[in-house]
Amino acid sequence: MAKIPEWCRNMKRKIAVVTGTRAEYGYLKPLMKKIEEHTELELLLYVTGMHLLKEYGNTIQEIEKDGFRITKTIDMDVKVDNTTFDMAVSMGKGIIGLANVFKEDNPDIVVVFGDRIEPFAAAIAATSMNIPLAHIGGGEVGLGDIDDSLRHAITKLAHLHFTSTNQSKERVLKLGEEKWRVFKVGALSLDAILNEKLLSKNDLCRKYNLPDKPSILISYHPVTTEWQEAERQMKLVVESAVAVANEEEMEVVIIYPNAYPGGFQIIRTIKNTIQKSKNIHVFENLPHLDYISLMAISSVFVGNSSSGIIEAPSLGIPYVCIGTRQQGRERAKNVIDVGYRKDEIISGIKRALFDKEFLDAVKKCESPYGDGKASERIVKVLGEIKIDKRLLQKKITY
Q1: Fewer C-beta neighbours within 10 Å, C or N terminus of the chain?
Q2: At what angle do helices 22-37 and 288-297 cross, to 10 degrees?
Q3: Which pLDDT score, from 0 to 100, does residue 1 have?
Q4: Are 98 and 129 in contact (CB under 8 A)?
Q5: Does residue 278 sit in the same domain as residue 321?
Q6: Per-residue pLDDT for 7 more than 80?
Q7: Residues 343 and 263 in one domain
């Protein structure tokens, strides 16, 4: 194949994608592939946040293994034992670092996903520099975390909005955004689930040295408004899951939390529990496809991760959702909500395992989050939207 001249490459519209976590990267991966395949778009990939932390699996290696060319890395100095002060400082460093790379590379559009500190830093940098910002996942609700406020703040900064559901689209419009800027595309996270072949149980057991037994999957993250309770909360979660697993001869699989305040305390709880129980398997990080495949073969998913609400319904997996982190988020019929009490959590897990009527409803439940074609809808808009004063100059609709 003939080499494309530099001047031809420079005529492409440069789409900058910012990723800071393993889960977010898994969601963005299908979109990034579509951008690379588009004849008139060029992918600029900025890697930051948790991806650069050895303690969380050094997940930048996963991005490199997938064959993406990383444009630049931005160190936000995210600490393993984060405090709320550290998180604020990391956002500031992220804004400075991302502003510098945007100045060097001059992207035409910056794309961010969700509600964490990394997309928020990118949003501040891009909009301050008059670079159009496209936000994926706006309009959703999670009342128990600072991410909820960050998400809505990014919405007010963004020039284009790609929402997962009709309810999310309506919330973005109620925030005063103009209709022509808002596109309901479905959840980007479903693109991988519905379009890629998941690993089989045999493959997963061989790859990760797991027993061929029924399993309880746990993914529990710190709640920033309750971060000092993280250790106590995680202890309740793990003890509840282990109690059921011991009774029913099951395995427990735990995925590390994010690096928000309280994450270090959760990890400490996990490490202490491993020493006491033989049927627990812990992973600092898993490739997104492996994580989804593991969810698909689990008997029940337990925790406070959004993936139990967004991805699990499409896999027909029951989800025991603990505490406040996901309060207010749109749900399918696979979700059992419980509080921070051991008896409640155990009861929820047992219902998810043995309530036939509930399990029948889970297998038939419809997800409100789309059809797995979000990335192609997003790329179409990114390629066709006119970049002009109308796009940059936002006006509130009320």
Answers
A1: N
A2: 120
A3: 42
A4: no
A5: yes
A6: no
A7: yes
Is residue 3 in a domain?
Answer: no
- The dihedral through the CA atoms of 82, 86, 91, 96 has a sign that is negative
Confidence tier at 348 by pLDDT (50, 70, 90): very high
Residues 37 and 130 in one domain: yes
- Report the chain's mean pLDDT, rounded to a whole number: 93
Question: Of the candidates 299, 297, 296, 336, which has an alpha carbon nearest to the alpha carbon of residue 314?
Answer: 296
Phi-psi region of 47 (alpha: psi -120 to 50; beta: other; left: phi over 0): beta
Looking up tokens 């999310």 gives 168
How many domains in the chain? 2
Mean pLDDT of 344-373: 95
179 and 209 part of one domain: no
Give the C-alpha distances (Å, rounded to integers) separating 175 from 45, 145, 169: 29, 19, 10
| Statement to judge: residues 252 and 183 lie in one domain | no
Say if CB 237 and CB 262 are below 8 A apart: no
Which residue from 254, 258, 214, 261 is spatially nearest to 237, judged by alpha carbons? 254
Strands 319-322 and 251-255: unpaired
Determine, yes or no, domain membership for 284: yes
Buried-exposed string 258-279: b where 16+ CB fall within 10 A, e elsewhere: bbbbbbbbbbebbeebeeeeeb
Q: CATH no. for residue 350? A: 3.40.50.2000
Question: Quick one: 77 and 209 in the same domain?
Answer: no
Beta bridge partners of 300: 216
- 155 and 218 in one domain? no
Q: Which of 225, 236, 214 is nearest to 262 (CA)?
A: 225
The answer as to whether 398 is a domain residue is no
Q: What per-residue confidence (pLDDT) applies to 58? A: 86
Structural domain containing residue 355:
199-364
What residue has token string 């900064």?
Answer: 157
DSSP state, residue 16: E
pLDDT of residue 2: 45
Answer for the pair 242, 282: CB distance below 8 angstroms, yes or no.
Answer: no
